[in-house]
Amino acid sequence: MKFRVLGPLEIRQDDGEPIPLPQRRRRELLATFLLHANEPLPGEALIDALWGADRPRSVGGSLRTHVWSLRRVPALNDRLRTRSGGYQFDVRPGELDTEEFERLLREARAGLGRRRTLEAVGLLEEALRLWREPPLEDVPATPALAGRVERCHAQRRAAQDLLIEAELNLGRYRQIIPRIRELVAGDPTHEHYWAQLMLALCRSGRRAEALAAYRQAHSILTEDYGLEPGGELRRLHRMVLAEAPELDSLPLLASEALTIETARIVPDQIPPEPTDFVGREAETSAVADALTSARSGAGVPIAVIRGRPGIGKTSLAAHVAHRLRPLFPDGLLYVELGGSSAPPDVGAALEDLLRGLGVPVSTIPVATTGRAGLLRSRLSGRRVLVVIDDAAASDQVLPFLPGTAGCAVLVTSRSRLAWLPGARTVHLDVLSRGEAVTLLRHMVGPERVDREPEVAGRIVESCGRLPLAIRIAGARLHTHERWPLSTFADLLAMGRQLDQLSAERMSVREGLASTYTGLAEEERRLFELISLIGTPDLPEWVAGLLHDGPLVRAALDGLVDQHVLRSEGVDFTGQPRYRLDGLMAEYARERVGEIPSLTRETALERVLDGWRHLAVLADQRMIRDPYYAAPEPGGAAAVAVRTVPAGVIDRVVADPSRWFSVEQANLQAIGEHACAAGRYRAAAQLGAHRFAFQYLQGDTGGITSTWHQISEAATAAGDLSLAAEADVRIGILRAEHGEDLAGLQLFERGLAIFERENDHANLARSLSCVAYGRHRRKQYVSALRMAMRGLEEARRVGDRNSEYLSMSVLSAVMVRTGAGPTGMALCEQALDLAREIRRPATEVFALQNLVQTNIILGRHRGAVDAGRHGLDLVTGIGSQLGEAHFLFMLAAAHWGLEDYRRAIEKFVRARAIFDRHRAPHMEIKSLLWLAVCHQERGDRVQARAALEEALSILRPLGLEHDAALVERAIMDGGVVKMR
């Protein structure tokens, strides 16, 4: 099998029979594979090669279709292999003309190095005969293919240069003149070709023609391009005019002379390695491994360090280069392209490298292609590491690539350089927290960091663990040597972090601005709107609502490619997820003011509605909490079908708890943003649909934060009923956590507003909550009155759940006031009502009341039986706090049975759950009961330890009276009397 790309694309059987491939896409795909033969190609690179920016909507399916059609060609099927995320096309030695060309060129260079010039000429002629130019002339050119094709052209020019100079060395002046004239006609700006032509003419005795050639070159360069001939041509012109005898013995114009002249020069251009370089062990190893394959002789290895501005790409490149210095004895070259800020002057950069290799300025070609060819010639046979800093595109790098094995290339870039042959990319992320703190220690000194280690952690997190930002923070702190770290940490926490992260010529904002400038218009708008909603991350469907267009995936890909967004994988609903870090978000918010307010409001409304609609669907399938009925969806479920992909809806409905778990941080953030934007009622609707899940998960902090913000926003707007509802929800959690007084105050405040506003929907529940709070405060008379009112109001409005709540409080008050049998009867009646309602969480509450009633009445065996049943039920619905309460009551029942071992085991388990869910009052009660149990067993050491733990929790809470009681118990060797 033969594959030919150095001309029209051809495939031939071993017998020379051509294999037709008429379809355009098949030819483009095969051409891409052949130019990357034996290399794994990711699907995204193939998509860029075939479609570029004009990709179809279902581009992944289209690619698979074209690959399948290529596999239908029998001769190609076994060549095309699937690789992770892409494909690889296998070509065997001798089958592909480009590989044959490169092999012959390598052998010719080796022959010239060994002074076997005649043999080298034969190899070069054989290599050039493979060309039917131009390469792939029947395959449409795409930017992705152009880089590889240009590399082929560059190698051909290098072969032509070598052949001419070898022929001149052999004295074949007359025979070589026609070939040089063809090259001059094809590239009249290539001054080295003119010099070769002049030398060949002069040595053939055609001095007048040599001078005419110079005049022609001078005319073309000055009149068409405004350039004076370079030093090589001018020097040769002077020698011809003077009939200098050196003309007959002049070495090869820019080849052997330079080889002799530069043999002793070993460039060392790498910038100094930063003295505060920290971490990056894995990345250093990956880059070093990629580059040291230069020792195998199997081509030129290329490593690309890719990352966002300020991430430390250049520092890592310098670190690796210095580490690998012994492996590249012929030198280290460095070129700073600055391609991310402006188009680089590649020609000037090539000149700098050539001069670094000792090439005289007078012999450096004018044209960029000539300079690139000369660089390859100079690097041939050497072991040099070329470091190219800040390249923006693959075509900026191609002119600097050596042509033969032995050298290696290290590139840094913000962009995905998909078309560098065989390049291995190492993605650079922010530092770990430990590495970031270590860098700050280098900047400000270990003493200051060791004095305030937690504050140092806050600073590096505020800097997003971005090396540039940490260096700037360190510079600011170094300037203010007497500042404690907390002063600067507080400045960062106040907002406007980008204003603080600027020092001298370093600025995080400038790096972000350069990234922003490089974005397409659609990408900029999406970037700004994502920052507007303020969620920690987002699934793709949210971006679709913000972008309001079919090209959202392309815009997201562009933002990921430019390190604006971080790709976070795919969630369980099948949605790609993305994250915007804090500094990026702040910069975007600075630009949001440029978006019309109506556009901002509409985008926020669409996203808020999307989250709310999914929350409605998920909440409809959740186990209800014991306080609230399912909120009315208000048609939101139907709207969700129109705003969110059907696949997402199906998965949310199938596993609502998982969806709530995944999206809690986003739901919290979007609710906060809605309150800040004045849409507190929408935030309340979202919060109501989250409440059941949060309650059963024990998410006290999330519930409290959500409804506190809603209460503040509603109060500011004069919406007192909603503010009161928010207070009651918070009070429920406070009371369940043992904060009886705080809960009662919130209940009573809400009750007053509901009565004044005639809000009967909330009145019955509020009365039962006030009754519970007063019962816990031993205000039994008023508790009984409130429970009776609550029972009456609940029955009047048909709220059976509130009816149960009031009945359960009524039973507890009866038991506490000595009416045990009546209380037990009411307790059992409340349990029957809870079971009629068919709400597991309400039945759990009823069982808790039954256990508590049995304990008060001294029926500890009955309490254990009811407690075990309740524990099974609460575990089944997944309420961890409910599990802790049952464990606590079971422990108390075992204590009553004098089974202290079981009591201790359950108090310990309950305490651990209360600790995990930040319920310190219940945690303290568990510890005090543990002290009692240990004391009963005669274990004063364990009893004292439990009291000391309780004291350590009491003091930060400011409960001085209780703390004093515990301190006295510790001193007296006793325990706190339990109620």
UniProtKB/TrEMBL annotation:
<comment type="similarity">
    <text>Belongs to the AfsR/DnrI/RedD regulatory family.</text>
</comment>
<dbReference type="InterPro" id="IPR051677">
    <property type="entry name" value="AfsR-DnrI-RedD_regulator"/>
</dbReference>
<dbReference type="InterPro" id="IPR011990">
    <property type="entry name" value="TPR-like_helical_dom_sf"/>
</dbReference>
<keyword id="KW-0805">Transcription regulation</keyword>
<dbReference type="InterPro" id="IPR016032">
    <property type="entry name" value="Sig_transdc_resp-reg_C-effctor"/>
</dbReference>
<feature type="domain" description="OmpR/PhoB-type">
    <location>
        <begin position="1"/>
        <end position="91"/>
    </location>
</feature>
<keyword id="KW-0238">DNA-binding</keyword>
<dbReference type="InterPro" id="IPR001867">
    <property type="entry name" value="OmpR/PhoB-type_DNA-bd"/>
</dbReference>
<feature type="DNA-binding region" description="OmpR/PhoB-type">
    <location>
        <begin position="1"/>
        <end position="91"/>
    </location>
</feature>
<keyword id="KW-0804">Transcription</keyword>
<dbReference type="Pfam" id="PF13191">
    <property type="entry name" value="AAA_16"/>
</dbReference>
<dbReference type="InterPro" id="IPR041664">
    <property type="entry name" value="AAA_16"/>
</dbReference>
<dbReference type="InterPro" id="IPR005158">
    <property type="entry name" value="BTAD"/>
</dbReference>
<dbReference type="InterPro" id="IPR042197">
    <property type="entry name" value="Apaf_helical"/>
</dbReference>
<protein>
    <submittedName>
        <fullName>BTAD domain-containing putative transcriptional regulator</fullName>
    </submittedName>
</protein>
<dbReference type="Pfam" id="PF03704">
    <property type="entry name" value="BTAD"/>
</dbReference>
<dbReference type="InterPro" id="IPR027417">
    <property type="entry name" value="P-loop_NTPase"/>
</dbReference>
<dbReference type="InterPro" id="IPR036388">
    <property type="entry name" value="WH-like_DNA-bd_sf"/>
</dbReference>
<dbReference type="InterPro" id="IPR019734">
    <property type="entry name" value="TPR_rpt"/>
</dbReference>
